[in-house]
Each structure stands twice: as structure tokens, then as C-alpha cells.
Known about the structure:
The protein is built from 8 helices and 5 strands; from the N terminus they run βαααββαααβααβ. It is α+β, with helices and mostly antiparallel strands. The protein has a 3-stranded antiparallel sheet with strand order 4-1-5.
Amino acid sequence: MSSTPRPKLAIPTLRRPTEASRFHIDFDWWERSGLDVKTYLYARLEIPAGPTSEDMRHDEVDLVDPDTGEVRRVDGFQYLMQTYLNQLPEDFLTRTSLVDGIFFVLLANANRPMTAAEIAAKVKRSPDVILRTLSGTQVYQGIRPIFDDE
């Protein structure tokens, strides 16, 4: 036997969201994946095809945050989708897939981070189901947890 100790390997740990974790849509995930969020939304919401991403790349609007009063520039398409989603019938989110429902809730909320309980109230599902769905290694539609140290 060798007297040389074995090196200790650092095993990366998967950070698991908790009930207090907040979730948001990571739009960088969409860019890295090569997918187009606008095309996805047109298809999922069955909206007739509109302008392409190239056409809307520079369209931005000024929005006032209702909580802070801060004025910020946002993507015009995102604002249109937020307005559209907030006008859909109340049962719309219960008729879509869970992941789509979560995505639409976050988008309708201007992508302000929400907890599983807050999302659950909108999609009429259990917070535990939402937390289990979003806690694995698979990232669905760019929905990710925000950890306090990020």
C-alpha cells in the first residue's frame, strides 16, 4: 500500500431551491440555447406570426415600476406580452402545461421574481409540485431560481 494520501476531489453540489426561493426567467438562457423566445410565445399563445426578432430588436418602452417608482427601459415585445397575458381569461393558466403556466405567470409579472407559493396561487397547483418541477437539473424555458448570494 502506498503511504501517499488520496487527493480529495471537490464534488460540485447542486443548490436546491427552498420554499423561500424566488424564480425568474433567465433570458440569457434563451440566447445561449439558440432558441427564440418570441417564436416560442407566438406558437404557445397561438398568435398569428408577427415581426421577427430582428424587426423588434430595437423596440423599447419606458416603464415605471409600481413598487419603486423607478423608470426602466424594457423590451417592447416583452411589454406587449405582459399586457396580453394579463388580459387572458382567468382559467387560461390552468389549461396550459405547468411549465408554460409558470413561464406565462412570470412574464405577466414583468419577470419580477416570485416564490413557488406565489406562482402556485396563479396556476392553481401545489407549491410543492412547482418547487419539485423547478428544482431539478433540467432548466425549463429559462426558469431559474435566484439565490440570495447571486
